[in-house]
What we know:
Blueprint: E1 3-7, H1 18-31, E2 38-44, H2 46-57, E3 65-69, H3 70-73, H4 79-82, E4 85-92, H5 93-103, H6 107-122, H7 131-149, E5 158-162, H8 164-173, H9 180-189, E6 194-198, H10 208-217, E7 222-226, H11 230-239, E8 243-246, H12 266-278, E9 283-287, H13 291-300, E10 304-308, H14 310-313, H15 318-337, E11 341-345, H16 353-357, E12 364-367, H17 369-378, H18 380-392
Parallel strand pairs: 1-2, 2-4, 5-6, 5-12, 6-7, 7-8, 8-9, 9-10, 10-11, 11-12
Antiparallel strand pairs: 3-4
Amino acid sequence: MTVHLINQTTQERLHIQQKLLQERCDSLLNLLDISGHDVSIVLLDDAGIARYNSKFRHKKGPTNVLSFPATDLYEELPKELASSQLGDILISVETARREAEKKSCSLHQRISELIIHGLLHLLGYDHEQSTREALIMWEKEQVLIKQLTNSRSKTMPHLAINVDHVATVRQARGTTEPDPVHAAAICELAGAEGIVIHLREDRRHIQDRDVYLLRKTVKTKLNLEMAAAKEIIDIALDVKPDMITLVPEKRQELTTEGGLDVVANEKKIKKTINKMSKAGIPVSIFIDPDPTQIKASLEVGATFVELHTGRYCDARNGEEQNKEFRLIERSAELAFESGLLVNAGHGLDYRTTSQIAALPTIDELSIGHAIITRAVYVGLDQAVREMRDCILMAG
């Protein structure tokens, strides 16, 4: 038996990831020990659920969730078939979105909560009977929400490898070795699905020569990280990488510190994105996991956002790391729901990658330093394969 998830929303702006919700529904049936039953969950807009609210509850306007037990809906079915039908749950995605915004959570999280609420109603819980029943139902909901949140998806994001650190070693001696172009080829042969390079204004590692050669040799996808500086913009327009990622850049920093403040640099970023769009180059923006920056990224015309995972990776204890992970998780869902493609990176290593890789809304992970340092001991090919194993095990 299974959950039948039906999306009848009509508004394109409501970006629903049905695979994620389906997985959560299946998990809930197992947690509630009712996997032998069929449940239909129908996602509607406000107008759709308002019709059911009027017909069955004699109330005007939309509500967030309605549940109909099978005993009410399937009286005409044979007894042995009706016993397998748990019932139907109707959810207004528009109402759920408004509630999610008030609660500062993602739309998918709020829909998951409403599914839990509806399922408990189908199982006989009723918060309207008494204060005691309401408390029992609420406590059960909280337990299920926590259990569901701690579960992981089997989704596997792509692995893109940053080869800047190979160039850093080369520049330290001012020679021609090791060559990041050669390193990129090894990474691709080992299973990398993208190559990332950061052409800095001070040319501390990647050089112009590297950018042009990599454009000719990379067989997967070349992602050029860059500041919105005129000289670098001109090079990007000439090279035409598969995509660019706009990042903040300070001369004194060892590596990129924090995400780009899109709100404060809106005009400059929007102008850069317009130029890239005319050239057919998709743009990602490296941002902190912050709803304000996500909204601003969408408004300036970005195709992707790359969520900064540095604070999660640098957390001093499990509690702090879990807090940062939840922030990334919610931000990834919010960005996805806004229509953005979602990448993540910075500081990820062989201990911290799997948890981020398990997030179903993450499309790609950008990892560099951990792989290159591991390669010192085991070789680049083996280091890439080990990181891919970390991502595969996330499921």
